[in-house]
Specification:
- It contains 4 helices and no strands.
- With 72 residues, the protein is mainly α.
- The radius of gyration is 17 Å and the shape is elongated.
Length: 72
């Protein structure tokens, strides 16, 4: 089985999960960017990066809550 076939199989098996991942990332980066462009204008750069890094635990919380909602 070639690499292209394996990638195609993986994408077809995990299509919905990959879409949720992409949607979460785009929304998170968009919201943080808007907040720091319009609300926290004078905030230091490290705070911007801290908010971006906070997206990692927020993502896992999102995935956990999505799994809980699907089970109920």
């Amino acid at each position: 089985m070639s690499l292209a076939d394996r990638l195609r199989d993986h994408a077809s098996e995990h299509r919905q999960g990959m879409l949720y991942d992409l949607m979460f990332a785009v929304v998170w980066v968009g919201v943080v960017s808007i907040l720091f462009d319009f609300v926290f204008v004078s905030a230091p750069t490290w705070a911007y990066y801290l908010f971006m890094v906070a997206g990692i635990p927020a993502y896992f919380g999102f995935v956990f809550s999505l799994g809980q909602a699907k089970r109920q």
